[in-house]
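Retry 2 of 3 after timeout on previous attempt. Resubmitting structure tokens to design endpoint.
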């Protein structure tokens, strides 16, 4: 397939200042008439042809300035339209008519139907499946859209911008006209038509603009959209207060659909959402679902400035909008909830998803320089590491200069299709700092490791820290340059008191940030009256790993005393990981796991410390997952041994604290109606971790079955079901709970996804048979991404022992399934396949089975570009 390169960027030869689209919707034969005002760009040769992008298009009619075109002046194929002999003036109107079938569109890009609702998904290159166009993000156009449909089928007709006109036609048809005054790239175009329920609200911006807000959902589900509406209004207010950004249209609509490839889409004034990120009530949604809705609603809304008003010049710059917008939604959630708990959750997510990406064959820079399929670059690296890079800019410059830089970005680039260079420049100009070395974060793949050594001299009261940075080779990047890495720190004396150095020498230290810039650097702190324990990487100030000389007792000290919850949690995790990895090796070698009392004691102290936030206690008591342990091991992974090691620790902790865990579990029982706020969610989280420990200690499913039965909210119900399936799979109690869940929620596919997930995650070799069986369930369909991700995605990316079976059957099943999905929805298939990216870190038997499964996929002819790209890079 064709490889696209960043350095090949060239502006378009033509501009399209105005786009008029006229849709006559029909389930199988929708007609799209597009009227484009086209202007040859200054400097373009007079005989240059106009070449437009298409994808599976069928051209019905073509005219220039009203006159039909002769056959010899244009060539139309499904994926390209080339027109020669254009009017000499270079300014003309091109009218194109295409016919498309939304009902057979199972890739869910372009115009498709989801549960009888017409909707569109145009990012990244879906608009070209609707009409021929210059489908690239730097081509901005002002859109007017007329939609016509059967009123009975689609009483609702929505597009971007503000409503302009509507009316009734003959034969039961009607129409609506929308106009979006803000020039935008085609990927932000959207249309929705169907029969949906609505909740309405309003928002008045700081400068007095009245905005009508609407959230459209399946009829009957309106009450489940109220939390999303609340989150939307909070997002609008927060963006005004924190970034000075106001909304800029008279309406803002959100539509929830049940077939969607990703979480949501920020189309101008008309966000389209996966219903998973809109619908919530206490009975059907968990605390995690509520937090997800708040974050995704905010994320898409924040794109209005970071993505829409300022978009990307080309898709290589994807992190310009995504990394920045993730950073903004993280900050929003931190302000809405507990900042440290939110930050720990982000760090956990980064380590679970982005670090493995950076360590494997799919590693790529935050701003890639080449791709074969852009859809495969909506990754954790572009999004989450991209956000970390923005966070580091703030850490390096400080909050005031960061805000000054952001203000300059909005002022200087409003209406632009911008680049990462533009973004960095505003911070340089606002601060006077040189960020050229920092900019390597955008270009160098791989997670830097910091190897740290310490030296304390009591005679001179000097403490020295030496840091050496290194990044392992990644595809196409055998060696790396040293980066500018901000390491936030404190030096802790007895009981965690912060020792303030009199002066710092060696490398650059500003306030509480060490600015590491050389490959190896020494930082020397004077006036330190006792040997300190360094608390490094506070707030997880850079996306790096640390190899430090800290002793076990230093880590215990930090886990007890560090005033920064993130480093405190990090120290505890490091202690537990050391034990879990050494025990995994013992178990693999046929030896029993060993557990020291000190870890057990430490976990008890945290669990019973009322001064700590319950959510923090819950995070600390959650023993690192099997995949966390696998990542720490890095090589020769045997998931069965890892499970044995983890279970041994959980069981030791559970037994040692059995009585007090029981008391605490009872104390945490909440009365009164369910509240989704962070404090209440924290209490539920802690209680549900304790449910697992208590069930393990008791060795019976009784307690979990009782919680399942009496739960008055989905968080507690789903947690109990999780314990039942994870710990007591196959018992009567578990089967009964699964049956009861199905009976109660069997008509609600979104809720039933939790039922599919929990069963797909059952540890051990039986899971594969379960998954195969569930694929025949009446609610299951490989056509629906949420169902597919719930069953196949959870199994392949979340079930370490069940998927990575030593006999290779998990991989073989997965390869077959990915191939089946690829024929329907290549984007979904390719994304699922990334579950195999760490195949080389398994022990030799599993590794060979994994390689064979990947090779089977690679040999198939007719693979999509999406899957071919992933499979070939994974095997390379
Ligand atoms: N910007 C949106 C990306 C997106 C997407 C990309 C490819 C295929 C389908 C898609 N749906 C949404 C989502 C976001 O980051 O906000
Ligand atoms: Zn986004």
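Retry 2 succeeded. Sequence:
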């Amino acid at each position: 397939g064709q490889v696209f390169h960043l350095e090949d960027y060239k502006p378009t030869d033509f501009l399209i200042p105005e786009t008029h689209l006229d849709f006559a919707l029909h389930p199988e034969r929708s007609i799209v008439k597009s009227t484009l005002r086209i202007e040859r760009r200054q400097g373009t040769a007079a005989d240059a042809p106009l070449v437009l992008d298409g994808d599976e298009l069928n051209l019905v009619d073509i005219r220039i300035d009203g006159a039909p075109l002769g056959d010899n002046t244009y060539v139309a194929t499904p994926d390209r339209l080339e027109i020669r002999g254009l009017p000499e003036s270079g300014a003309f109107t091109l009218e194109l008519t295409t016919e498309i079938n939304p009902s057979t569109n199972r890739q869910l890009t372009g115009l498709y139907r989801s549960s009888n609702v017409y909707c569109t998904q145009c990012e990244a290159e879906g608009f070209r499946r609707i009409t021929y166009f210059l489908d690239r993000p730097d081509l901005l156009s002002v859109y007017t859209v007329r939609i016509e449909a059967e009123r009975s089928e689609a009483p609702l007709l929505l597009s971007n911008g503000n409503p302009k006109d509507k009316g009734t036609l003959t034969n039961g048809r009607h129409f609506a006209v929308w106009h979006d005054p803000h020039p935008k790239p085609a990927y932000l175009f959207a249309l929705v038509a169907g029969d949906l329920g609505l909740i309405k609200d309003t928002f008045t911006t700081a400068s007095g603009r009245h905005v009508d807000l609407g959230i459209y959902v399946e009829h009957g589900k309106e009450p489940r959209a109220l939390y999303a509406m609340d989150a939307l209004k909070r997002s609008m207010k927060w963006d005004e207060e924190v970034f000075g950004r106001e909304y800029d249209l008279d309406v803002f609509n959100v539509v929830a659909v049940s077939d969607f490839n990703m979480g949501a889409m920020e189309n101008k004034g008309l966000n389209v959402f996966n219903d998973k990120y809109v619908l919530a009530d206490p009975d059907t949604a968990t605390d995690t679902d509520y937090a997800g809705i708040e974050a995704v609603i905010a994320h898409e809304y924040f794109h209005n400035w970071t993505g829409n008003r300022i978009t990307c010049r080309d898709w290589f710059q994807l992190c310009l909008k995504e990394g920045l917008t993730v950073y903004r939604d993280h900050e929003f959630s931190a302000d809405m909830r507990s900042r440290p708990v939110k930050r720990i959750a982000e760090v956990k997510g980064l380590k679970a998803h982005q670090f493995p990406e950076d360590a494997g064959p799919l590693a790529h820079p935050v701003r890639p320089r080449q791709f074969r399929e852009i859809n495969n670059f909506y990754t954790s690296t572009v999004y989450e590491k991209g956000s970390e890079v923005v966070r580091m800019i703030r850490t390096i410059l400080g909050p005031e200069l960061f805000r000054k830089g952001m203000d300059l970005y909005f002022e200087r680039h409003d209406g632009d299709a911008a680049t990462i260079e533009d973004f960095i420049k505003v911070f340089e100009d606002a601060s006077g700092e040189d960020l050229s070395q920092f900019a390597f974060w955008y270009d160098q793949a791989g997670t830097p490791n910091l190897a740290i050594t310490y030296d304390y001299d009591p005679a001179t009261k000097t403490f020295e820290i030496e840091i050496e940075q290194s990044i392992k080779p990644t595809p196409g990047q055998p060696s790396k340059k040293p980066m500018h890495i901000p390491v936030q720190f404190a030096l802790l004396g007895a009981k965690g008191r912060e020792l303030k150095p009199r002066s710092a020498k060696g490398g650059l230290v500003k306030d509480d940030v060490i600015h590491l810039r050389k490959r190896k650097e020494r930082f020397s702190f004077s006036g330190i009256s006792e040997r300190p324990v360094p608390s490094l990487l506070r707030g997880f100030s850079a996306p790096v790993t640390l190899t430090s000389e800290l002793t076990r007792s230093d880590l215990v000290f930090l886990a007890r005393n560090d005033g920064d919850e993130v480093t405190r949690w990090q120290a505890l995790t490091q202690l537990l990981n050391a034990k879990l990895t050494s025990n995994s090796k013992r178990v693999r070698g046929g030896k029993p796991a060993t557990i020291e009392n000190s870890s057990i004691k430490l976990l008890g102290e945290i669990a019973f410390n009322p001064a700590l936030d319950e959510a923090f206690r819950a995070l600390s008591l959650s023993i690192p997952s099997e995949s966390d342990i696998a990542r720490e091991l890095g090589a020769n992974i045997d998931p069965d041994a890892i499970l044995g090691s983890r279970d041994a620790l959980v069981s030791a902790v559970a037994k040692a604290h059995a009585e007090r865990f029981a008391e605490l579990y009872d104390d945490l029982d909440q009365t009164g109606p369910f509240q989704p706020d962070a404090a209440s969610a924290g209490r539920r989280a802690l209680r549900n971790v304790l449910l697992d420990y208590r069930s393990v200690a008791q060795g019976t499913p009784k307690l979990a079955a009782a919680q399942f039965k009496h739960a008055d909210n989905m968080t507690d119900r789903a947690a109990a079901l999780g314990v039942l399936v994870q710990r007591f799979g196959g018992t009567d109690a578990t089967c009964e709970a699964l049956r009861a869940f199905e009976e109660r929620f069997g008509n609600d596919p979104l809720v039933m996804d939790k039922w599919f997930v929990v069963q797909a995650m059952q540890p051990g070799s039986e899971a594969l048979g379960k998954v195969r069986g569930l694929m025949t369930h009446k609610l299951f369909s490989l056509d629906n991404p949420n169902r597919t991700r719930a069953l196949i995605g959870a199994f392949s990316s979340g079930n370490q022992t069940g998927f990575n079976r030593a006999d290779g059957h998990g991989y073989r099943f997965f390869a077959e399934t990915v191939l089946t999905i690829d024929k329907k929805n290549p984007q979904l298939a390719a994304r699922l396949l990334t579950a195999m990216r760490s195949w080389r870190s398994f022990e030799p038997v599993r590794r060979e089975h994994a390689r064979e499964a990947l090779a089977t996929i690679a040999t198939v002819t007719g693979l999509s570009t999406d899957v071919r790209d992933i499979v070939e890079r994974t095997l390379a």
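Attempt log closed. The chain has four domains: 14-302, 319-443, 450-541, 746-876.
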